[in-house]
Amino acid sequence: MIGRVSALLRAVAGFEPRGSSTTELARATGLARPTAHRMLTSLAEEGLVDRDPKSGRWSLGPELYLLGSLAAERYDITDLAGEILRGIARETGETAHLSARRGDGTVCLASEEGSFPLRSHVLHVGRRLPLGVASAGLVILSHLPDHDIDEYLSRTDLTSEWGQAHSRAAVEQRIAETRLAGYSTNPALLVEGSWGMGAAVFDHRDSPAWALSVTGVESRFRADRRPELGELLLREAHRLTQLLRGHQR
To answer: What pTM was computed for the model?
Structure first.
């Protein structure tokens, strides 16, 4: 039951800020529509979701804001990362992102747009993607222990939603390439012409808990420029890791 409630809340979050219909949420979670409606009604009574009386669309509720504001003191690193994101965006001209690992996926916490007028719109604040998908999810997965990677890929079929470019063999190949380079590259695997690169940020246990990434159009990720972008991401990811460790003491 707790798992279904969590999945439903994550689904509601995935449709922010426009809100979502009961049918959309039922489809996203695999729940029967009457079950989804009953659970949403109960969550609304607790203030965890809210329903627009005119449109009937569901959004995250005020109680989640209160709970989140208390949790932010421990988990929110966006203030520390803000200067770094702005620096990456300013130096590269691309959009810089901070993503956090959440279970078997990542969620984008913050973004900073660069000066280049053409942008990729694959990643935005609040978007969740599975580990191994996009540059942030790939670099975090690549830095996990081998047994954790094997366990995850053994129970996860990424091809059903993301295509054969995300078969186990293809993901394992990209993991090997990421480990060799230190940073990840997503060569337009989600949206044609939209590239991304990422570097892992580590917590006090040396676990890859976050990722810095840049996204943009393919012409901005030429082969001769990618090492430069990778080195910048690695340097700034290391700096953020050190800032976090100093902050957590």
So the answer is: 0.73
